Amino acid sequence: MASADSGANQERLSSLQSRLGHRFVNTDLLANALTHSSFTNESAGSQSNERMEFLGDSILSFVSAQYLYNNYPQNEGKLSRLRSVLVSENSLYKVAEEYGVQKCMGIGGSLKVELARTGRIPRSILADCVEALIAGVFLDGGYDSAFSVVMRMIDYLVNSSDVFEDSDDMDYKSLLQEYVQKKTHKLPDYECRQIDCSGKQSSDVFEVTLKICGKMICRNTSSSIRKAQKA
Known about the structure:
This protein is mainly alpha-helical. The protein contains eleven helices and three strands. The chain folds into two domains: 1-160, Ribonuclease III domain (Ribonuclease iii, N-terminal Endonuclease Domain, Chain A), CATH 1.10.1520; 186-230, Double Stranded RNA Binding Domain, CATH 3.30.160. The chain has helices at 2-20, 27-33, 37-40, 50-71, 76-86, 89-99, 109-118, 123-141, 143-160, 167-184, 225-230; strands spanning 189-194, 206-212, 215-222. It has a three-stranded antiparallel beta sheet.
C-alpha cells in the first residue's frame, strides 16, 4: 500500500512539474516549496516554504512588471494596478488550481483536519505555495528558468479568463477610500440591502448606499451587491 501511495505521489509531482514547465534537478527544493509550516511540526528535519514564498513573491512581481512594460502602453499608475492583479491571491489561486498544487502539498495539524472536513486547503495557503514554487525553480535553474515559469503562468491567466476585467473598478474604489480617509480620517460606509421584488421575474435586486461621515452621497441598485457598488 505504501508503494502505491508513493507511486501516486510521484505521478502528481511529475504532473505538477509538467504544468510548471520545469523539471527539478534538486528535488529537495521542490519538496521544500510544497511543505507548509504545519507539516514541519510533525516531521523532524523538514523545512517550511515560508522563506521561499518571500523570494518567489519578489521574482513574480519583477517578471510581471517586465511583461506588462513590454506589452501594455499604459502609464505607470495603470501598470501598477495591472501588476497588482497578476500577483494577487486570486490569480495565484487560479494557477494553483490549474496546476494541481493542493494534491502535492505537505500539510499537518489543523490544516490537515480542515482538508479532511472540507476537501479544500485555504486559498491564501495555495497562493503562497505558488510563490514558493517560483522560488524553487529560481534556486534550481536560475533566473531564465524562473522567468519562463512565471511567463507560463501569466499566459494561462491572460488567455483563460478576463484577469484584468475589474482592475479599473477596483482602483476607483481604493482611490475614493484613500481620498476620504485623507480628508476625514474615516472610511466610506457602504450600506447594503436586498430589495423585495415579489411578483417580479427576478428577486435578486440589491441596493447599496454610499455614505461619507454619515451623509448619503449616492445610491445604486443592481443584481448583486458587487455590481451595485461599482455602478
